[in-house]
Amino acid sequence: MRFAKIVSIAAALALSTGTLKAEETRQIYVECGGSFGDFVNRMKAKAEEMSYPPEVTEPFFRSANYLQRTINADRAQGIFNSDFIEFSRRLIAQYRLDKGRQESQKNDAIFSRIESELGVPRGILLSFWAFETDFGAFTGDFNTIDTLMTLSHDCRRPELFQPQVFGALELYARGDFPLDTQGAWAGEVGQVQMLPLDIMHRGFDGDGDGHVDLDHSVADALFSGANMLRSFGWRPNEPWMQEVVLPADLPWEETGVQPHHYRPVSEWEAWGVTPRSGAWEGPSLDGTLMLPMGRKGPAFMIYPNYQALFEWNQSYVYVATAAYFATRLMGAPVYDPGNADPRLSDGEMRVLQQKLAALGHDVGKIDGILGAGTRAAVQAEQQRLGLPADAWPTRELLNRL
């Protein structure tokens, strides 16, 4: 596979040939749907309005093809229906732990520079590097222009993907995005899987060769990932998560990953929450309790840096697993699984979401996935019904509703 070499941010801004700006994100440029050929022509015309010359727009848009397998992949994300224990055990295989520790040692100089210059710990970067591409072993086999154009044509989320097409066009205009660039089904490329606009505005030349090559340069990939996390609000040299032990009773309605649940760690300690091993990693910080499977399952204190991870990926279970894996790579023990109530089946979860929506809660799409909106609604209804409000949906709650 061949991937793009991306120029540094300073050079990229100087070499811009079009009018795409950093703030031009999350908008729909042209009408989605209809004939794919007509859609391609609309996108090409829009690019020419933005001052891209025909010698750039003609080959770029002429190369675009509709990819049905991109749509199939977009519709088939069933892995996120797993609960935390199932998902984490599936992703955190022994070989990934071993490989992560090997890569940490092999690239110690790179990680040390990142930790010193950007304040992002190696555990976090190793975790995302592992989950995104198995440490660069497989970075995707979807033609990136095809997949971005296909998702831009599809009317589910054109505001997310149409700007990325123009990001790719800008990079192509600079000679840094070959037409045969390949990556993931959603348009990300390279070892840490970055979208074109992220490459434009957050790419980092880690090896000092004047380019940001996310495919072949480990230094560029890791520095770019760290730089992206910093742009998401990562606070240098602060913790993100540690496992805790809970008392038998807590004000469970105060738990949860939403920012308004954060309070001084000293207050949680006063309620009887203690670290499972060692001392508090952020004794002077605010934190909150993340109970991915309710009060009877694994329990973690999370700190403000945890919120930055949701900008990388907005799946609750993915972020929880990546953050936990990072702690393992930094020496934490295997979590205590506890004895959580069984998760609802996909069908039961959809029924629960329908009931919650009927009660006026915004749970988003009725998809059977326990996301942030569903968790908040569950917690609210548990509190209303006098149940422990730990945001974990149980059959008792479903029956009560």
What labels describe this entry?
Helicase, Ruva Protein, domain 3, alpha+beta, disordered N terminus, 401 residues, 5-stranded antiparallel beta sheet, 18 helices, 9 strands, two-stranded antiparallel sheet
What do you see in this structure?
The protein has 401 residues and is α+β, with helices and mostly antiparallel strands. Among the domains are: 6-74 and 139-202, Helicase, Ruva Protein, domain 3 (Orthogonal Bundle); 241-329, no CATH class; 346-400, no CATH class. 47% of the residues lie in helices and 6% in strands. The chain contains 18 helices and nine strands. It has helices at residues 9-15, 36-49, 54-62, 68-75, 84-91, 94-106, 108-117, 122-133, 144-153, 158-173, 196-202, 218-231, 265-270, 305-312, 316-329, 346-358, 372-384, 395-400; strands spanning 6-7, 142-143, 182-183, 211-212, 241-245, 263-264, 274-275, 286-290, 300-302. Helix 2 (36-49) packs antiparallel against helix 3 (54-62). It is globular.
What topology emerges from the helices and strands here?
Elements: E1 6-7, H1 9-15, H2 36-49, H3 54-62, H4 68-75, H5 84-91, H6 94-106, H7 108-117, H8 122-133, E2 142-143, H9 144-153, H10 158-173, E3 182-183, H11 196-202, E4 211-212, H12 218-231, E5 241-245, E6 263-264, H13 265-270, E7 274-275, E8 286-290, E9 300-302, H14 305-312, H15 316-329, H16 346-358, H17 372-384, H18 395-400
Antiparallel strand pairs: 1-4, 2-3, 5-7, 5-9, 6-8, 8-9
